[in-house]
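Why does residue order matter? Because the sequence determines the fold. Keep that principle in mind as you read this record.
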Amino acid sequence: MRSVARSLLETVENLPILSPHGHVDATVLMEDSPFPDPAALLVTPDHYVVRLLHASGVPLSDLLPGTDGGSVPDGRTVWRKFCAAWPLFDGTASGHWLGDQFEFVFGLSQLPSAATADALYDELSVKLQAENFRPRQLFKDFNIEVLATTDDPLDDLSSHRALASDPTFHGRVLPTFRPDAYTNIDHPNWVENVERLTAATGEPDNSYRSYIHALEARRRYFIEHGAVSADHGVRTPATLKLTEVEAAQIFEKARTGTSTSADRDVFEAHMLYQMGRMSVEDGLVMTIHPGSFRNHHGPTFAAHGADTGHDIPFAISYTEAIRPLLQDFGTEKDFHLVLFTLDETVFSRELAPLAGFYPSVYLGAPWWFLDAPDAMQRFRSAVTETAGFSRFSGFIDDTRAFCSIPARHEASRRVEASFLARMVAEHRVTEERAHEILFDTVDTSPRRTFKL
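Structure:
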């Protein structure tokens, strides 16, 4: 099996990286400035790392800036705390990715520890100032062909526009339409966001109808700037088709501050349905990332804001929740709907059967807490017998940590090669066919699913 797996991996390990969903800021590549310091590159933007350091007793105030605008923790101090805690990452996906970066991206001669922290910080600081460690050179060295970002609907996309028109930059950096702050009426800035949205698109008022037209207009703007998908980080995958009158009533209650939590759930479900309708009309691939209890720890959110390591998964169900959307659009030609989950129990029970029937549905890759080798193996084992390989989205790295991108994709390619090697050894597929499947999984699937 190992020999077959190695043979399979050799055929795909040098293929270009296609990253159709992630959170790297396009401005980093547009400006091409040196990364500020080792901690700012490898520790503080990575909530996988920050959350485990915090769990071991390191206060977040020692790692992250506060929302009060106070002092920012010193990079060297943050790095020392990370290095002293390095053994905590044994067995974790973060430890694997970081170790891969230390060895293959930065060529470090020793692993982090309390004793090596300062020497490694100095070594990395020197390297980060060198031309060959600038973002654009790393983009090239990582063999990235496509990198999608995640963007606010009112972003002017100037960085994407600059990169697309720069003849010296080789690769595609695509924006992704992410409307959560405009469709979740519980968002603290929702009313302000709606007003900004309708004003930016020249709508005559702040009515529900103008709001819908404004969202449609901004989607068109994103498409004009290269977007291929719209992403939805919703609480649940519930969809619901309201009449315009019903939707407008909840919309007005939200604008006047009289909506309830039940209104929130109904309106978000309706807007997810509306986003599906818009994807059918404008062709943007629709991706749904549900099931995260955002900002689980209130004091941490107040002190440090969102995306600081305290989002926790919860159980979800897709079958009934997504049915209103699929009833109307599930068999529409060229509609692509990619379903992700943080709840492993739905892999074989719901997602694989849905993808095994609806031509619009694709299986989103294991995401966030599940993008580790063992979890990726469980996903592949759970879905393949029902949906095969062709209904897979391709790997999604979903990362803010730019230098971890090649490590994450390599881990996925190794997992897929390992799974196929077992199928070859058990005479369930031929070795020749396994090579074809692996190429499709790594390269053809993301191109097909995300219309690249």
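The longest strand covers residues 144-148.
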